[in-house]
Amino acid sequence: MRIAITGSTGLIGSALVRSLRADGHEVLRLVRHPARTGDEVEWDPGRNHVDASGLVGCEAVVHLAGAGVGDRRWTEAYKKEIRDSRVLGTTAIAEALASLAEPPRVLVCGTALGYYGDTGTRAVDEGAPAGEGFLPSVVVEWEAAAAPAEAAGIRVAYARTGLVVAREGGAWGRLFPIFRAGLGGRLGDGRQYWSFIALHDEVAALRHIIDTESLSGPVNLTAPEPVTNREVTAAMGRVLHRPTLFAVPSFAMRLALGDFAEDVLGSQRVLPGRLLESGFTFAFPTIDEAIRAA
Question: 280 and which of 74, 142, 173, 275 could share a cystine (Cβ 3.0–4.6 Å)?
C-alpha cells in the first residue's frame, strides 16, 4: 500500500513509518522543504500548499503534524501557533486530497482527547460532547477542517489520542529521567485521571483504522483502563524500582506552565469504545504493562 504521512519525524509518526515500512508498505513523508528524495512530498501548511501531484496513487494518508502542546509555556502567541498548526495543516491536506482525480480511500487525522475537556471521574467515550476551554475548541476546529476530504467521498477518521507512553518523547519521555533519578511523584493532588496508551498500541491502532472500513469519525486511541496520576506514580515506582516521595504542588505547576497547567491537572477518563467494538486488541492494556513496554 502507498501511504503518505505528515509529522513523520515526531514520536508517533516515526514509529508508524518504521512499522509500515517493516511490513513492505511504500511510505511518503510530507516535508516542509523541496523534496530531496523519492519518498518526500513538499508541503507548507502556512501557505495552504501541498504538492498534490506527489500524493497520486496513495490509498491512505495519516495526518499527524502539529505544534507540540507541552513543548512550551502557553503564551497567547504559542496558543495561536498550536491552533494554526492544526487547523491550517488539516485544511491544506484535506483540500489537496479533495483535488485529486482519484483521492485516497482514507484520511486518518490525528487529533486529541483534549476534545472532551475535564471529565472529572466521569468515564466518557466517542458519544460525549466537546468540553469547554482552549483545547476542546482547538480540536473542534481541527476536525472540522477535514470537511473538504469528507465532501470528496474520502473516509475520514479522527484518531483522538491520549498520553502516549514511550521512552523517546511525549509526557513519558520527560517523566522517565525524573523517576529514574528517584525524584518522581504525583502532580497536584494526583486524583486526576490520565488516559494513556502504549506507543506500540498507538501505532497498531492507527494501522487498524486504516484497514477497517467501518471506522470513520471520532475514534479514541487510549487504553481501556484509565488511571489516576497517583496510580501512574505508583506504577512508575514499581516498574523502575524507585521511591516516589516527591510531589509537585499545583501552584508551582501553574507558575511554570501557565494555562497548560490546567490541562495537566485536569482529569480525563476516556474509554476506547469504537476501537474495542471494531475488534482491536491492546497488547499493553494496563499502566504497568505500558510502562514496561516503554
Answer: 275
How many whole angstroms separate alpha carbon 218 and alpha carbon 157?
Answer: 6
**CATH number for 203:** 3.40.50.720
> Nearest 5°: CA angle at 249, between 246 and 253?
115
* Threshold 0.90, pTM exceeds: yes
Parallel, antiparallel or unpaired: strands 227-228 and 2-6: unpaired
* Domain assignment of residue 277, given as a range: 2-293
- State the sign of the Cα–Cα–Cα–Cα dihedral 71, 74, 76, 82: positive
Among left, alpha and beta (phi > 0; psi -120 to 50; other), residue 195 is beta
Comparing 151-155, 177-181, 182-186, 255-259, the range with the smallest average pLDDT is 255-259
pLDDT at 51 over 70: yes
Give per-residue pLDDT as tens, 96-123. 999 999 999 999 999 999 999 999 999 9
Long-range contacts of range 177-180, CB-CB < 8 Å, 24 or more positions apart?
Answer: 179/236, 179/237, 179/240, 179/242, 179/244, 180/240, 180/242
Start-to-end CA span in the chain (Å): 28
How many Å apart are CA 61 and CA 149, to the nearest integer?
11
The grid coordinates of residue 59 equal 490509498
Question: How many domains are contained in the chain?
Answer: 1
